Amino acid sequence: MWGGFNAMWKKFIGLGMILAVMFSSAGCNLSPTSSQQPEKKQIEISMMYPMELKNFEALVEKEYPDIDLQVEMTTTATMNGDSERRLRKGHGTDLVVTTLPTSGVKDYVMDLSAEAFATAYQGSVASPVMIEGHTCYLPLPGQYAGYILNKTLVEQLGMEIPDTNSAMTDIFKAGKEQGKGIGEDGAMFGLATVSPASVGAYMIGTQVPDFLGTADGIKWMSEFDSGTAAFSGVWDNSLDLLAAWTEQGYLNAGTLSLKSKNTMPIESRLLDGTLMLSHGNVQMLTKLNSQSQQYEYVMLPYLSDQGNTSWVTSEPDGYIAINDALSNEGSKDKRDACVRILELLSTPEGQQAWMQDTEAPHSYLSDFKESLETVPQGIADCVKTGYIYDLQLSSDVVQYFGKNMTSVLDQKMKMDEALSAVDDYCRNGSAQVEYDQSFIGTMAEDLLYENYNTRREETAIGNLIADAVKEYTGADIAVVNGGGIRASLYKGDVLGEDLDAVCPYDNKIILVETKGETIVSMLENGISQTVRDASVPAGRFLQVSGLNYTYQPKDEEQPSKLVSVTLADGSELDKSAEYTLAVTNYMAGSVGYIDNNGDGYTMLNLYSDTTPKAENVKLVKETDATYSDAIKQYFQNHGDAPIQSKLEGRITVVGAGNE
């Protein structure tokens, strides 16, 4: 028996050896070789920023090959106005960037206090944005801020570069008399960015030479931090200079309105010599001098009228945090990737890469060795001698102060009321700056505003707003300028804060009667700038209801072309027929057409006296409603079910896969 078993065993072993040789020769292995190993998927990390970050992205890829940093290009205004709302709605990016964070996001960003890099930054910059004593945001490399002056025009006036505010006022006076550095609106000064944070930071900066940078100012700040000092009775004259400039026409207070769709185009006016002075930073100065062959620009610090030393302010380009939604266990890989990115950013190499991308001259890392070679001559003395002021008020206070000071300049508040409101906010908070939690309705799905889509193509959110305007007015056709749409609506409950973010402007809807040929001209204007300024499309592009159109965007060889226009039922638009059309008073010239106001819709002009009035356009009805009001009414009218909106082929783009 055993002999037979041994014979069978030998045959079994022999067969096994043959099979092993066969598998080996065929290249078959029980475990795959390294070349056969499936590639490990990269961890995608999202963030929004208003410029490309090629050097920093390359550094991240080099140091961490498993991380794919995806930077969504956006405008600074959108980044500031929508990043925190997106967080609260559960749609925030993985890395969150905003110019000046508020305490309202304390439950939506991660506490970074335990990370070693949290203490790597200068306390004077990191402390004001702490949330209840915790480090949640890191300061990005930033800019020295002050004034940017057209040096060439000053020399043409035969005057010296000013070293006091009074001397600057004299330059305005001479420029106005000789027609230099002045636009059609009479303004000679403006702010590069208009937001509560930027206005507040500028106005606080003006107070540094003669107050905040003095012994009295240092004492006030210390007492303010301890709760024993107030704005009232101390800051009452802080707007005297700007008020004087406004009264004399050098500053148009309306351009500082937080509800204005078009702020003054500062850079273009400086470049064409129709603006003498702007508040700005080193990055802006560098850009202007590189683009202009006619003028030279110089940067100045904030000036004194009391013989005190001039100062510059230092402002981070933004603050970066990690979305707290990544705290759950299922997001561990993303969370760890974000921490690694911030850890890399918090090194001299990371700072340098970011600074190369953004042209920021200043890092807030405590041990960063900064070169003075990139500091403009006009502020070099301030930087070398340490007259650099970091904003020490909390971000919430800076924004609320800026909002109220704008209202004073716009004559909507008195100074004592504004300062009293700031003091009350510092003590108790204020409902005026809390986001609107009133319930509007429910969305069935996400309607996304991203990558400027409302400015070049049909969008579901554009269709919803245009439908709401059409229904509100009873018009045959309604159009909505894409630049008036600034954020997304998300699936689920829609609150008042969402409408404020999506349609933030207070332009009023009007109903007109006009011919089809005017509607064609209107659409041609709408498609005329879908590509401009490094592919950033203009806000004049029209989302529509009651109308369909096809267009071909402009390219290097030809301008944009309106290919066809039909009504919603598919019938052709009759150029000689009359239609009722819903637009806004802004498009119809309520603020004129200077500096790109009105988005160039001069064919609809009913209000501006400086532009020929429109032909074949008759005002039927003025409303007091904004886009936001129309959307609110639409939700009320259709509140029996979640609101839906989809693409319907209203706008076809030739050459975009739609031919």
From TrEMBL:
Residues 1-26 form the signal peptide. Keywords: Signal. Pfam families: 5_nucleotid_C, SBP_bac_8. Gene3D superfamilies: 5'-Nucleotidase, C-terminal domain (3.90.780.10), Periplasmic binding protein-like II (3.40.190.10). InterPro entries: 5'-Nucleotdase_C, 5'-Nucleotdase_C_sf, 5_nucleotidase/apyrase, SBP. Residues 451-593 form the 5'-Nucleotidase C-terminal domain. GO terms for molecular function: hydrolase activity. The keyword Ribosomal protein does not apply. GO terms for biological process: nucleotide catabolic process. PANTHER family: 5'-NUCLEOTIDASE (PTHR11575:SF24), 5'-NUCLEOTIDASE-RELATED (PTHR11575). This is 3-beta hydroxysteroid dehydrogenase. It comes from Eubacterium maltosivorans. The lineage of its organism: Bacteria, Bacillati, Bacillota, Clostridia, Eubacteriales.
